[in-house]
Design brief:
globular; mainly beta; 3% helix; 18-stranded mixed β-sheet; single chain
Length: 574
């Protein structure tokens, strides 16, 4: 629901605008994934409780274990996101225009609409709101329950200018601060806390056979109570002090007309983002080491704790050159090239973004998953002559066609070289090997076409951080996303024409080819490595099956694969 209004006042060379926006958002989701329960069939010793074969047990209906369905609880979250702004467009002179203003964003505290939500208190020693319930059906909801505290520092100044240097050249620039509140979807995870997702497990026994019909034999084993030392129940929570995610953006560009109907632009864009959300597992052991993970957790009242923490940051810089040509003799087009570099800590919390080292964020600061350094895109359209002087058959068959093409050539996206085992003995985060020297990878399809059968990743660039067979545990020191995968290129081509049947009836025919030359681009390689089984002090690098191999291709936009796709379509217009 959105209610907004703006007002404009003009005085002399000033055009002043002001406005307000009141926007209400709601989100509802059943976040738990086992609402139908779970049966487990495993081959036990042939006898009363099992046939000795798991598939046969399934057919005969004799389960080894089952889990009662989680009561489907829908997390329902609401929030107001209000905004207020004032802006002045000042025509300083015939050649200079200034644009400056201030916006204030006020996202209100997100709250539970139906009251089915629990999170940890700030001390993380108990779940709130308090309850004696041991299952979702006994839980008394508390509508209006708030997830975080208020934030009132979301001031966003804006400034921009446009200066016409000559009749054919203009310079523009600007700066602004922008805010984006956390996605409401994350708060629905609060329905997974005890007892809203509590279950009861049953095991088969000679005197109490577990079958599809008799699926709750005996007393069963209830979910352990959260917040009791030694039970290690996992929990989800939000940091009550989370600030609103913010982005500082600046840009500078110049435009020039080299010849009639053309345009050339050179653009720079930069940004710094702070207070970005991530999944912070703040009950991980403080250091790598032997022993069970639970016994080494700093908070012994809970097991793994996933907290939405707004403490991430990112930086982006890009330089773009664009050449445009308006229609000239039926031909029009544009070609652009962008160099960019994007660095961050991880993907967003809703995408599962977390760090390899929970208490050392800088170790994960590196190339973002979508860091594409170089990209060239060209588009071209050409209207064939109508052939008005030709006969009807020639005009219909050859005249009036339009051709269009898009060409995309770009460098690859980053990938991580990771360990396929738990080198630090933690329960969250992806771990990486040690750095030996600057890594290198050549994983293009051309490399494979020429008969390569070895890993396309330089394995000598890495060493394993510790040998868990010798009871050693450590984090690796390789940076995140140090290597970029194969590039991506394709050419799309289309031809279309509108045939007039009568004055108010026409038929448009289209023929399209995605990746018309059928040149697939390799996907990123498998990049997981392991270790040998010896108990020596320094472990030996051991590549697992497929390490450094490419087994897929990148998907061309508009298709479901990287192969050529042909499409014919017709449309009746009346």
């Amino acid at each position: 629901m959105v209610n907004a209004d703006t007002g404009v006042h003009t005085k002399g060379k000033h055009n002043i605008m002001g406005g307000v926006e009141f926007r209400r958002l709601t989100e509802g989701r059943a976040a738990e994934n086992n609402p139908l329960g779970l049966f487990t069939f495993s081959a036990g010793t042939a006898g009363v409780t099992s046939t000795g074969n798991a598939a046969a047990d399934f057919v005969t209906g004799y389960a080894n274990q089952d889990q009662t369905p989680i009561v489907t609880v829908k997390g329902s979250v609401g929030q107001w996101r209000d905004g207020f702004f004032i802006l002045d467009n000042w025509q300083v002179s015939q050649n200079l225009t200034l644009n400056y203003g201030l916006r204030y964003d006020l996202p209100t505290v997100p709250y539970s609409l139906n009251g089915y939500a629990r999170i940890l208190n700030p001390a993380e020693d108990a779940l709130i709101p308090a309850t004696d319930a041991t299952s979702a059906k006994d839980f008394v909801p508390t509508p209006g329950f708030k997830f975080i505290g208020p934030q009132h520092d979301n001031w966003g100044p804006r400034f921009g200018f446009a200066y016409r240097a000559t009749d054919k050249m203009v310079v523009r620039g600007g700066f602004g601060i922008y805010y984006n509140a956390n996605q409401l979807n994350s708060y629905t995870l609060a329905t997974g806390n005890y007892p809203l997702a509590a279950t009861v497990n049953y095991n088969t026994a000679p005197g109490a056979l577990l079958t599809f019909i008799n699926n709750t034999p005996g007393a069963g084993s209830k979910s352990p109570v959260a917040g009791v030392q030694g039970t290690y129940v996992s929990a989800f929570t939000d940091d009550i002090h989370n600030k609103t995610q913010r982005s500082y953006q600046w840009n500078l560009s110049t435009g020039y007309e080299p010849w009639r109907g053309s345009g050339f632009e050179l653009q720079y864009l930069g940004s710094h983002d702070s207070d970005l959300d991530r999944s912070f597992y703040d009950n991980e052991p403080l250091l790598p080491g032997p022993g069970s993970v639970n016994s080494r957790r700093p908070n012994q009242l809970f097991g793994q704790i996933r907290k939405i923490e707004n403490d991430g940051w990112s930086n982006y810089n890009a330089l773009t050159a664009i050449l445009r040509q308006r229609t000239l003799h039926g031909l029009a087009g544009q070609i652009s090239y962008t160099w960019s570099h994007d660095l961050d800590l991880s993907t967003d919390s809703n995408g599962g973004g977390t760090l390899s080292q929970q208490y050392n964020p800088i170790a994960d600061y590196g190339n973002s998953n979508w860091d594409i350094r170089n990209r060239m895109v060209a588009s071209l359209t050409y209207a064939l002559p109508l052939l008005s002087s030709s006969n009807y058959a020639v005009r219909q068959a050859l005249g009036g066609w339009e051709l269009a093409s898009i060409v995309n050539v770009q460098s690859g996206t980053p990938f991580n070289v990771i360990l396929n085992y738990n080198s630090a003995n933690m329960s969250a985060g992806t771990e990486r090997p040690n750095f030996v020297h600057a890594p290198h990878a050549d994983c293009s399809l051309r490399n494979y076409i020429h008969g390569n059968t070895t890993s396309c990743i330089d394995t000598t660039a890495y060493a394993l951080p510790a040998n868990i067979n010798a009871n050693q545990y450590a984090f690796g020191n390789t940076s995140r996303n140090t290597l970029h995968g194969p590039g991506f290129s394709y050419v799309n081509l289309s031809a279309f024409k509108t045939f007039t049947v009568v004055s108010r009836l026409s038929i448009q025919f289209r023929a399209e080819a995605f990746n018309v030359f059928n040149h697939p681009s390799a996907a990123n390689p498998a990049s997981s490595i392991g270790h040998d089984s010896s108990a020596i002090a320094q472990p030996t690098f051991l590549s697992v099956t497929g390490f450094g191999s490419v087994t897929g291709v990148q998907q061309v936009p508009g298709s479901v694969s990287g192969a050529r796709v042909l499409s014919l379509a017709g449309k009746v217009v009346f």
